Every structure is written in C-alpha cells, then in structure tokens.
Amino acid sequence: MKLFRHGLLLALTAALLTLLTGCGDDVTNITNVNNADLPGLNDITTAPPAIQTAAKAVVRIHTAGSYATGFYVSSTGQLLTNDHVLGDSVCPSEGCYVEITTMHQKGATRIDPVTYFAVPNAVDVGLDMALVQLYTTKGGSKINTPDYLTLASRTPASLLGTHVTIVGHPEGNLKKWTDGLVANASSKWFQATAFVLPGDSGSPVLDDNGQVVGLIHRGPASLDLFTTNSANVSAICTASAPILAAMTSTTPLPTTMISVTTATTADKFLANNLLYLNARVNSITGVTTSPLNLLGTACDAGLARQDYTSPDDLYDGLTPCYDAQIWIECRTDIGSEPYGGVCPTGSDATAWENRFKAINQRWLDMTGEPDYDSVTFGMASLKSSFYLGQAAGAVELQKIVTATAPVLDPSLAYYMAAFNLPTYSGVTIKDYLVNYRNVLHYELSDDSIAFGFRWLNINQKLPWNDMLSLLTGLYNDPDVSLGTRLAIEDLQYELGAL
Fold it and tell me: How far is it, in rounded angstroms, from Cα 81 to Cα 72?
C-alpha cells in the first residue's frame, strides 16, 4: 500500500515473495536473493498474452490517503487484496467506500475511477489477506466483473525454479508487470526474484497460464522470513489459505474487525479514525465530541510536547494532525474523493489554521525545514472553493519563504508553482524548473519537477506542448529515478498524452 497525500514515495524495494501452503512447519535453510538479479518493471502491453488477459482483472484501489492493488476472483465483484489495504485497519465490519480504477494502463482508453461500497467477507491479519465484496453502493447490488482470476493449487516445492509474474500498480501509477524465478522454498513459503514497490500491495503472483499462485503482502515482523538488503516483502499462497473458504460460503467468516456503529472510546477512535472516514461515519457512538474535534485535541497535545528527539519521533507525535488533514475538505468544486470529508467552520476553522501554522513551526524548530504541505494544501482545504484555497495557501507560503528564506530546491519550486507564486529571490520558478539540469540543488529522484511543470501549465505559465516536451525530456534523462519515471508516465496518461 502506498500512503501519501500530495507527494509520492520513490524508494525502490527488492521483493522477496513467500507462499503459505496451510502447513505448520517452520521455514528453514532459506538463502538470500541477489538484488543484481532482480528484473525491472514493464508496461503491461508487453506482457505475454496470458498475462495481459489476466491483468484485466487487476485493479487500482484508492482509500483515504493510500493507493494499492487488488484483483477480482469472481464474476460478481469479489476482490482479493491485503488486510492492510481493505482489512481491519482500513475498513470497518459494516463496510467502507473505496475507489476502483480498471485498465489504468498504457495503451488503454482512460476510464474514470468508480466509487463502490466494499464489505469484507473475511480477513486474516496474520496472513495479511482480505476477501472483499464490492457493491454498486451501500445497500446496492453486487457489481459485475466479467474479468476475474482463478487460483492454482501449487505447493512451494513444486514451484521451485518456476517462472512467476507479478502484476500491480507500483506507487499507485500505471499497471506494470515484473517477473522472476522461484529461488527458494519451504513447507510454508517460497522466495522469488522480482521487484515490487509501494502500491503493489495486494498484487497477484501468476504462473505462466495466468493463474494465481500467490498474493503480495506485508505481514507482521514474525512473518518477514526473508531479508535482502533490509527489504521485507512477502506473498502467500492463495490456493490454500483458510480465508478463501469464504469464497463459497454464504455466511461471512468471523473476524476481529472493528464496528463503527457500536460504542467505543475516544482513544479507540483515534487509533482507528480512518475506518470511520472510509465508512463516511461522522459521529462516534458513545463519544459526544465530533471526530474532527477529537483529532484537534490530540493534535494540540502533540504540538504541546517538548520531548521530541528526532524527525520520526515528531512525525509520530503529530499523527493526529496529519490524519485530520485527510478528514478536512471544504472545497466543493475540485471533484470527489472516495471518502466523505468534514468542513470545520467559524472558530473551528480558525483553530485548524493555527494548528497548520504550528505544525510548520515545529518542523522548522526540529529540522530547519518548513512543512509546506500543512500550510499550503492544509490551508487550502479549509476554503470553500479551489480558487479561494489556492489564494489562502499562496499567502501562507509567501509568509514562509519571506520569513525563513529557504534554499530554492525542486520541492519548494513545486509548491510555489502549485500556488502560482512566480518568482523567488530574483529567479522565476518557470526558469528554475525548465532549466533543472543547471540548478545547484537539482535532484532527479524528486518528481516535484514533473508536477511543477503541470502546475505551471495550469497557471498558464507554460504552454501545453512545451509541458509535454519537458516531461518527455525529464523521462528520458538517463539519471532519472524509476519512481519519477512512473510518476511522469501516470501524469502523461492522465493528460491523454500516453
């Protein structure tokens, strides 16, 4: 699963695929896979025919603040993915709203995402599996999914040396495939050479016939049985996992999932607030305070602490503040999200403005670097329209750069382009981004340059053809990172240029 609001994760992870057969034996004699042997990601249009056909059943999943992958396993909308994608930490037992995008891939006509109501039929936290039923809406009919995958019954031992393919949405971007060989096996798990990225959570592991032999997943530390250069990625055998009994059962299996309609406590809500958001439940049974006010109180407590010892510690302490940013949305003219936002008004809105400013100050105090996101997009989300939000974010951003005079880098240039601030210290943002190869703090691993081009185009400072040409040049730069290339491809696709 990929978590973000306005940025993208760019770190490449070497995937170690493991497979559960239902046996209880411990893993023994497993060797490591050399990263140099791991293949890269490929456009789905270049996959073998059986894989291209299977890939039609693979979809991109979007819930509040995250992207991931899943795939259909029936013609009536049964979706298999990870527990951490649509399970106990994301979706309550009553169900939640989820945005699904099909055929999000190069060469396909762009299809808008569709919001469905997802009811988990069964989850397994230990195996990181979730079997979910999708409905047209809450209380509606099951969706039709003519493209779905079948499950192959293969033991880990029988897979040794076998060629396998993973299809997913790395970083939440266009559909890709990667492949490798099963290198190691035990009675419970297998290991294969392949690449995956954040966003590939819930991807199927396929044999050459396009049948599913495993599911990419992120298990608890006790299940991270293989390690290569600190990468811990696993897959489980979908053919033998007990959870799949739910596929033919008329009664959902018992789960430990949280209910958002039964009474709870403030602490339990804070630990699971995104479940309420995904379910569009804006009141808490048993608690009189509103969800946003609870998050505000917890955010204030985090801001008041003076014992933070590191940026990671600070981020953890301010988690309620960042969760609240996902909850808050007052703009009504920017399209819909797959969750129901909350709009604070009056003194509550003022309180959140002050919190966003305080978050920025805490980061300045800790690291010397501003938190641009909180005082730009955070402030913008409190306004009733896109244009009012942009104006508010621009005002706060200008205050930051005036007061702190940070070094102009791709990240700052991106925010200034996004909020239509044309110059910084005598340099135009357009010139800075267009001439990125010549700037002192140029970082090709940062996709801020690509999205800066897009904002310049939106703000009418960069013609359409020039923007597309610059995106192509950035993509073809030999030093560009894989994560940035994926982001550029997705942006070109959304613009109808790919």
Answer: 9
pTM of the model: 0.86
- What is the spatial distance between Cα 437 and Cα 452, in angstroms, rounded to a whole number? 14
CA–chain centroid gap for 308, Å, is 27
Query: Residues with Cβ < 8 Å from 191, sequence gap 6 or more?
Result: 16, 17, 18, 30, 33, 182, 183, 184, 185, 226
Q: In Å, how far are 43, 194, 195, 428 from 34, measured between CA atoms? A: 24, 10, 12, 45
Based on its alpha-carbon atoms, the radius of gyration of the chain, rounded to whole angstroms, reads: 23
The residues pairing with 163 across neighbouring beta strands, listed in sequence order, are 181
Q: Are 187 and 21 in contact (CB under 8 A)?
A: yes
Q: How far apart are CA 14 and CA 16, in angstroms?
A: 7
List of long-range contacts for 386-393, beta carbons under 8 Å, 24+ apart = 386/331, 386/333, 386/334, 389/330, 389/331, 390/419, 390/420, 393/418, 393/419
Cα 396 to Cα 15, 18, 36, 416: the distances in Å are: 41, 48, 46, 11
Write the pLDDT tens digit of every residue in 325-369.
999 989 888 766 666 778 999 999 999 999 999 999 999 999 999
Q: Which of the 8 DSSP states describes residue 144?
A: P
The H or E element spanning position 56 is none
Let me know: does 226 contact 32? Beta carbons within 8 Å: yes
pLDDT digits (tens, 9 = 90+) for 236-285: 655 556 666 666 665 555 566 789 999 999 999 999 998 999 999 988 99
Residue count of the chain: 498
**Helical ranges in 420-481 per DSSP H:** 429-434, 448-458, 464-476
Return left, alpha or beta for 350; rule: phi > 0 is left, psi -120 to 50 is alpha, else beta: alpha
Cα separation, 327 vs 333, whole angstroms = 17
**Chain-centre distance for alpha carbon 424:** 32
Provide the 3-class DSSP secondary structure of residue 81.
strand
CB 346 within 8 A of CB 312: no
Residue 371, token pair as written in the block? 């938190």
Strand, coil or helix: 132 = strand
Q: Which SS3 state, helix, strand or coil, does residue 274 take? A: helix
Q: Are 16 and 37 in contact (CB under 8 A)?
A: no
Contact at 8 Å (CB) between 184 and 191?
A: yes
Query: Rounded distance, CA 275 to CA 355, Å?
Result: 23
